[in-house]
Amino acid sequence: MVELLSESVLRLVYLVSAVFFIQGLRDMTHPRTAVRGNLLSSLGMLTAVGVTVLWFDVISPAVLIGGLVVGSLIGAGLAVKVEMTQMPQLVGVFNGFGGGASALVAGAELVEYRIEIGGAFPLEMGIAAAASGIIGAVTLFGSMVAAGKLHGVVTGSAIRYTGEQAVKAVLLATAVLSGVYLVVQPDVLSTALQGTWVPSYWLLVLAASVLGVMLVIPIGGADMPVVIALLNAYSGLAAAGTGFVLNNSALIIAGTLVGAAGMILTVIMCESMNRSLANVLFGGFGEEASSEEMEDIYEGNITETSPEELEMLLDTADRVVIVPGYGMAVAQAQHAVAELGQLLDGDGVDVEFGIHPVAGRMPGHMNVLLAEADVPYDKMKELEEINPTFSQTDVVIVTGANDVVNPRANEDDSSPISGMPVLNVNEAGTVIVNKRSLSPGFSGIPNPLFAEDNTYMLFGDGKEMMQNVVNEYKESN
Amino acid sequence: MPMTEFITNLTFFVLAAFLGYSVITKIPATLHTPLMSGANAITGITLVGAVVVAGSGSTTFATVLGFLAVVMATVNVVGGYMVSHFMLQDFHGGGDG
Question: Which of A144, A148, A452, B48 has the fewest Cβ atoms surrounding its Cβ within 10 A?
């Protein structure tokens, strides 16, 4: 009876922590309440883990405490040390660990079952464990490759080879067949294949791990926002799968919420590029930059400008929009850009930041960089909000962005970016594009914006150029 | 009764998916990075499962697996919530900036 009571208590506490997670996510709908939301969510986690530790018979507390301490130290150490520009790869690494943990837990549970109860696994347990193992292992290794690409340890370019899809298909088939074997467990095969350490599960994990690497290797660096979002969804689904194995409602609810979040972000990222998820994952993207086409468009039509000239333009402007791209993060120019925004704002100029959903290397990447540089969130505008305002804007400063401001996307000319929603900066009075050269963006196509009459190119390193503009502005005002 | 239990679990799954969809579509793009790292931390709920197997493992193999799972999940939870917190603290409105 006491036992029954405590199981009810355990389940009730899991319900409480699920409520914390949901309210925490609800608080994330506004920057004002988001800090509280994150704390609520972490409180939910503490509650769920705490009650689990107290309720279950802990045979070896040293192992448990040791694991918690080691994990906390690593996690906190990484979180404290990370630079804001390195956030995408760190989120990728954390994500991978979540997926890996789910795969390990499902495996450990199978091993325990084999030893303590023996015989065939119940059908739903086998299915859930197989799903959790495949998704978890793909997440772990896929995330590590994605993080490696973002960090520059693995080449950011898309690595493609003949027979690529066949290799992936064979790996997936191996993983799925191992899963089927795990579920069906035919007695026709030798008992060695059904050993107490459940070898078929680990074969599944091995195949899925290699599959994770192979899935992400062929994807280019600029597509990593989609990959990171998708892997985020996978890690949630892996946790939900593990919840089915363990019959644990807390895991199922929390894992599914994360799965939904990741899927939504994935869809937003794909729509923002007007590409299907299948195209991002399996199709090649971009074309070889044709120098003839570039010369055709750029020859004689490029006007250069200087920080001094830009400063003079800003002196007479009433409304300025700054459009940042991944180049701003690479050049670490966000503080100079933010300072320029503050100076203009202080002089009564209407300054806003126009942020494309796929600018940067993860969803919302530009926003966290600018927020760290003290740009207020109400100055950061989404594509739908900022686009109607360009016609009333005097000066647009594009820094480190290319494809997301390419007017060719609005034309139905079957270019790689055709149909992609872009920031229509060319509707503004004057457009200043800060870039190191005329080299094409990820799509590989030239940008006619650079050749337009009201566009001026400010060639040079983003940080240096923006700092020069700031200095000029300070001197003359 | 395992089948009815499975169906109960499936109910949680389906309802949570709908709930997640309706809540998360309301989150503005400006908070998508902290949303991801925070959601990431929630994935660490698998720590609950890891605690169960690490603490109650009856074989060395299961205990080792449990230990590794606890370490990985804890990195995910602690790191994820901390980076989200740091990022969210940076967000402020025009009034106080």
Answer: A452
What pTM, to 2 d.p., does this model score?
A: 0.90
Q: In the predicted model, is pLDDT for residue A219 greater than 50?
A: yes
Q: How far is residue A70's CA from residue A165's CA, in Å, rounded to a whole number?
A: 39
| Model confidence pLDDT, tens digit, residues A101-132 | 999 999 998 988 888 887 788 888 899 899 99
Q: Please name the residues in contact with A363: beta carbons below 8 A apart, sequence gap of 6 or more.
A: A225, A229, A265, A268, A269, A357, B29, B32, B33, B35, B36
Q: Is the dihedral of CA A157, A158, A162, A168 positive or negative?
A: positive
Distance CA B71, CA A72 (A): 8
Chain A residues with CB inside 8 Å of B68's CB?
Answer: 67, 101, 104
Domain ranges of chain B: 2-90
Residues of B in contact with A355 (CB under 8 A): 29-30
Residue A128's alpha-carbon distances to A134, A238, A260, in angstroms, are 10, 9, 18
Backbone angles phi, psi at A395, to 5 degrees: -130, 130
DSSP character at residue A304: B
Alpha-carbon distance values, A69 to A50, A90, A259, B68 (Å)? 14, 20, 27, 12
- pLDDT of A193: 55
- Give the integer Cα–Cα distance in Å for A66 and A286: 48
Amino acid at position A338, single letter: A
Q: Which of A17, A28, A235, A355 to mutate to test the interface with B (most CBs of B within 10 A)?
A: A28
pLDDT single digits (tens) A386-428: 999 999 999 999 999 999 999 999 987 778 888 899 999 999 9
Q: Which two tokens stand for residue A12?
A: 């009730």
CA distance linking residue A116 with residue A124, whole number of Å? 18
Question: Are B46 and A58 an interchain contact pair (Cβ–Cβ within 8 Å)?
Answer: no
- What are B17-23's contacts with CB under 8 Å, separation 24+? B17/A256, B17/A259, B17/A260, B19/A22, B19/A257, B19/A260, B20/A25, B20/A256, B20/A257, B20/A258, B20/A259, B20/A260, B20/A261, B21/A260, B21/A264, B23/A22, B23/A25, B23/A26, B23/A29, B23/A257
pLDDT for res A155: 79
Cβ neighbours, 10 Å, residue A236:
34
CA A240/CA A353 separation, integer angstroms? 38
Alpha helices in B1-97 (DSSP H): 2-24, 32-43, 46-56, 60-90
- At the topology level, CATH places domain A291-476 in Rossmann fold (3.40.50)
pLDDT of residue A259 exceeding 50, the answer is: yes
Residues, chain A, total? Answer: 477
